[in-house]
Amino acid sequence: MIVIGADTHKGSHALAAVDDGTGKVRGSRQIKAEEPGHLAAVRWARELDEERVWAIEDCRSCSRRLEQALLAAGERVVRVPPNRMGASRKGEREPGKSDEIDALAVARAVVKDGVERFPVAYLNEQAMEIRLLVEHRNDLVAERTRTVNRLRWHLLELSPELEASLKRKALNQPPTLARVERQLRKLPTGARVRIAREQISDLRGLTAVSSGSRPSWPSSSPHTDRDCWPSKVAAR
């Protein structure tokens, strides 16, 4: 098994993986503090070892998004309180600031004291369901935006006057899509017209699905940071 320490910052995170038995370094890297970086971190970790645990210093202003992404990907995460880092950080310290050294110190603190001695981060089932729905809807909205932009480019070529008449979010409205489709039917059939009509069909579907994917918070269990991110040790 490996322990992956994370030194988190606002714009980037440093990662260092060590062997759970020996503390030997298995790998290290830097990632951007954004979704593509989080995905890259998970892929990298899975290539290093099938069994792993992530150790993140508990400073949630910087580490929360990474922690959420790892949990959503099914990774095991423990939180390392800052007051547990002193001895380990002193042992790894070299002259000058090094994020990789700090990440290594986080990982080795967990190796030294044992994974079971640290609080386990988790998402409760309801929070996980809501997160998945929110991410799915965001993907649908982003795809709808891309389709609207492509459709507008085609309309600009086919009928500049029609495209100019459309307000910024007009193509999100079913009546406007129907009006545009009627105008397209009056034009000579060609590849651009066929593509534009297909995009209108795609937009209808994306709008319907994204509207139906809006998560609702159960009135009996309001969603709070405390619900999703308990600080106590939780059994997996």
Q: Which key features would you list for this structure?
A:
disordered C terminus; 236 residues; 9 helices; six-stranded mixed sheet; elongated; 54% helix; Nucleotidyltransferase, domain 5; single chain; 2 domains; alpha/beta
CATH class of the largest domain: Alpha Beta
Determine the N-to-C terminus distance. 17 Å
What global shape is seen? elongated
Reported by name, the CATH topology of the largest domain is Nucleotidyltransferase, domain 5
CATH architecture of the largest domain: 2-Layer Sandwich
The main β sheet shows up as:
6 strands, mixed
Order of helices and strands: EEEHEHEHHEHHHHH
Average pLDDT level: 82
How many distinct beta strands?
6
Helix and strand content put the structural class at alpha/beta
Poorly predicted parts: 91-97, 215-236
- Estimated share of beta-strand residues: 5-15%
Q: Helix coverage percent of residues?
A: 40-55%
Number of domains as seen in the coordinates: 2
- Radius of gyration (CA) equals 24 Å
Describe, in plain words, how this protein is organized in 3D.
This protein is of the alpha/beta class and 236 residues long. The protein folds into two domains: 2-121, Nucleotidyltransferase, domain 5, CATH 3.30.420.10; 126-212, no CATH class. The protein is built from nine helices and six strands, in the order βββαβαβααβααααα. Strands 3-2-1-4-5-6 form a six-stranded mixed sheet. A hairpin with a 3-residue loop joins β1 and β2 (12-19). The two termini are 17 Å apart.
